[in-house]
Design a protein that fits this description.
Blueprint lengths: L4 H4 L24 E7 L22 E9 L3 H11 L7 E3 L8 E9 L3 H5 L6 E9 L8 E13 L3 H18 L2 E2 L14 H9 L3 H10 L7 H13 L2 H7 L5 H10 L6 H6 L3 H25 L12 E5 L2 E8 L9 H14 L19 E4 L1 E2 L2 E5 L3 E2 L7 E10 L4 H9 L10
Parallel strand pairs: 1-4
Antiparallel strand pairs: 1-6, 2-4, 2-5, 3-4, 6-14, 7-11, 8-9, 9-10, 12-14, 13-14
């Protein structure tokens, strides 16, 4: 079954299921894509919170809160909160990055702040709800997973056909025991999937090319004004002119341009103007691309995802040894056996080595690597019967809910049901 070209550019080259598609669109409305974070202690950040409480329990160095956001990039949201609290963004801690085009709820912790100060934060489409004081800041190790409530709209098949096709895909995924644990589209960008390309150039030490890729490489799916200004910069390399012409909503680009307008060849310095979390994401996105390639190769060569072969890496999940593949890094060895041969072939084609993930110019974004499961388990899956889509005449909508472990992507599950031909139009 053909995979869209855009998916192949991020290393996703196969489907796990062979059943026919239902098509449709996601994210037609923000409320169609709801994400609620769950911590390892079972705490769930809910979109519907009670009124902000100023008096909170507990004692500790950090104030734990729930942050509910609508249509906000997580890093930009954290920065906006930090600005209002007059502090560095690194004092606001998160467990994971959530979808931007969605309604999301997640736990955050803030150092050196009072509930009264938090109650004064007023940012459009961001709400903070103080919970308690704690001694441990929020970090990725406390994240268990995310619960999703999603509406697939504009499905054009008959209701009975939709039900049958959804059931067929579900049976295939049930037999597999989950979904391939690909890094999803938002890891790379769907409208402009260049995050991993920037990371690749950083890993190679090509900082100028990394900067120009981020700033000036345009996409046919972008707003025409953004395309025009990017193309102009690509043609002229005039950073001062670009600083005046780039749309104000391209904030990260403007951070870099403001530096390059004064320091023409200091591309490393330009990246240092970005949030450290974002710089890390570039390198991690290239790791993610390579992982997707490794996983695609395993599936293409009909090697099992739910059965450990001799010399496979494993990770313990719920007391079960699960197949794992490496996220390439300077401390992480490749697999052994046939899987390792596939990985070596991919790295040779990419002309990259694990030790390249040391980044001496910005050591904090160096990537040691780790293991990641080949399968992601799906929990609490519920699929409602199709109903008429009031937003799209004579079409149907499907409501689906599920929980995925941390680091796994809802769109990777949705693509198995929808098998979109045009990812951008389908809302991915």
């Amino acid at each position: 079954m053909n995979v869209p070209k855009l998916e192949k550019t991020v290393g996703i080259e196969v489907y796990a299921s062979k059943s026919l598609r239902v098509g449709g669109r996601i994210r037609e409305f923000l409320e169609d894509f709801v994400v609620e974070e769950v911590l390892t202690d079972g705490s769930r950040a809910e979109v519907k919170q009670t009124k902000r409480a100023v008096q909170v329990a507990g004692r500790g160095r950090y104030l734990a809160c729930v942050m509910v956001k609508r249509n906000w990039d997580t890093i930009l949201a954290v920065e906006a909160v930090a600005r209002q609290l007059d502090m560095n963004a690194e004092n606001v801690h998160i467990a994971g990055i959530k979808d931007a085009k969605a309604v999301t709820a997640q736990h955050i912790s803030i150092g050196r702040v009072t509930p009264e100060q938090v109650s004064q934060v007023k940012i459009r489409d961001i709400n903070l709800y103080p919970l308690r004081f704690v001694n441990e800041k929020i970090y990725s190790g406390l994240l268990s997973g995310n619960c999703f409530r999603i509406v697939i709209r504009a499905v054009g098949y008959a209701s009975s056909v939709i039900e049958k096709r959804m059931e067929n895909v579900l049976n295939e995924l049930s037999s597999l025991g989950g979904i391939p644990n690909f890094f999803g589209h938002q890891r790379f960008g769907t409208v402009r999937p260049i995050t991993h390309v920037v990371g690749e150039q950083i890993v190679r030490g090509n900082w100028e090319k990394a900067a120009l890729t981020f700033l000036a490489e345009s996409s046919e799916f972008e707003h025409p004004e953004a395309r025009r200004t990017r193309q102009q910069l690509w043609d002229t390399k005039d950073f001062k002119a670009a600083l005046y012409s780039f749309p104000h909503q391209l904030r990260y680009e403007r951070f870099m341009l403001s530096h390059l307008a004064r320091h023409r060849n200091d591309f490393v310095g330009a990246f240092r103007r970005l949030p450290m979390k974002l710089c890390k994401l570039f390198v991690q996105a290239y790791q993610s691309f390579l992982f997707n390639k490794f996983l695609s190769a395993r599936i293409t060569h009909e090697m099992p995802l739910n059965h450990v072969l001799n010399e496979d890496y494993t990770v313990n999940v719920n007391n079960t040894a699960c197949v794992a593949l490496p996220l390439v890094g300077f401390r992480q060895s490749l697999s052994a056996g046939r899987q390792g041969e596939l990985e070596k072939e991919i790295l040779e084609a990419e002309n990259v080595k694990p030790n390249d993930f040391r980044v001496p110019q910005m050591q904090r974004i160096s990537a040691p690597g780790r293991l990641r499961t080949a399968l992601a388990f799906i929990n609490s899956l519920s699929i409602e019967k199709p109903t008429l889509d009031q937003a799209n005449r004579s079409k149907w909508q499907i409501r689906i809910g599920f929980m995925l472990p941390k680091g796994s992507y809802a769109t990777v599950l949705l693509r198995e049901f929808m098998k979109p031909r045009n990812l951008v139009k389908a809302g991915f």
